[in-house]
């Protein structure tokens, strides 16, 4: 995507979420004015819509969103301008073109799409009682701790861009976009295998490039342990929590070197692929979702049957319930599995416990429940991870099945 398209999507996101600065609004107005020109805006929007539609087909009321733009006096200075734009005979607004802007707004802004429950006949709940005590609850951000092999601990969000740490033949560099990567200084093998660990706290996430070139995205309250230099017949890393990987291809004379992610319940072996693993200790199951390529999921641990394994195909998810010796496979919506990496929450038939576990890790809050019945309520929807905490909870309340009470950093879920 070229620089102009990226900028347009940013402006649309800022506009639809009411976070656009005056100077940015003027810039967006200029873009909109070009709709009535022959400078190729139609082709740009149509192309963007095609890309979005291929990734996530969307059904939205495009006319309403489109009219929000053309009827906004901040963008079209007065009614005469609006009428001129609407009646311009040289422009033919196809249904697909109108949907283009609608989809761009929806996806770029990551606005709330829907939220449902298993009790739809009930009326919306009243607003929760919000007790504003202690520090405000805010969304998480890009932060993590790096523990080096010699025991040094580095707060990655505190060090400056371009900072360098040298260790065991590698330079660890913090890039301009906030991630860390490993640059080899001495390509020779090390005599001793040493390990680094990246830990994200509640309310934190981080990106890194491993020494073999594999890209990793680490979700909140997660930990990834990996060798400073991979050697041997496999590339083994240990994961607690959730991470998304784009695995690099590594070859030796006798073939490719598999990349293996080990969690408490499973081992996932890949040769070069994109996949997501969710393996939080407090969750009822470990889930591995494959986007591209092929992976083998095997049960891990002394009490498991070592022969139990399954090979995943793209769009499949392997689920292992805690304590189970069975791997369940299902075809899933990939958007829901990796939405966290792209700045969203996405739920589909999740219980309120699963929903609140995800929210609690990102906003760093504690959750309590009044009664067991509320724990079985099911929800689905997509919303930005960067919404205000109060707005997020009020949106869930609109389903009419739960209410919330906030006491400092403690959230009580009620019916």
Helix content: 10-25%
Provide the β-strand percentage band: 25-35%
Q: Structural class of the helix and strand makeup? A: alpha+beta
Distance between the termini: 46 Å
Query: How many strand elements?
Result: 28
Number of helices in the DSSP assignment: 9
Whole-angstrom Rg: 24 Å
Averaged pLDDT: 76
- Give the low-confidence spans: 37-42, 52-65, 78-114, 119-133
Q: Which descriptor suits the 3D outline?
A: globular
Main pleated-sheet profile: 19 strands, mixed
Structure overview:
This protein is of the alpha+beta class and 415 residues long. The chain has nine helices and 28 strands. The chain has helices at 3-16, 22-33, 41-55, 62-70, 79-86, 95-109, 334-338, 352-363, 389-397; strands at 115-116, 129-131, 141-142, 145-147, 153-155, 164-167, 170-174, 180-184, 195-200, 204-209, 215-218, 222-227, 235-246, 251-252, 255-256, 259-262, 266-270, 274-279, 285-292, 295-299, 309-312, 316-321, 328-331, 344-351, 366-369, 378-384, 403-407, 410-414. It has a 19-stranded mixed sheet that branches. A four-stranded mixed sheet has the order 2-27-28-25, covered by helices on one side. It has a three-stranded antiparallel sheet with strand order 1-26-24. Strand 12 and strand 13 form a beta hairpin. Helix 1 packs across helix 6. The radius of gyration is 24 Å and the shape is globular. Residues 37-42, 52-65, 78-114 and 119-133 have low confidence and may be disordered.
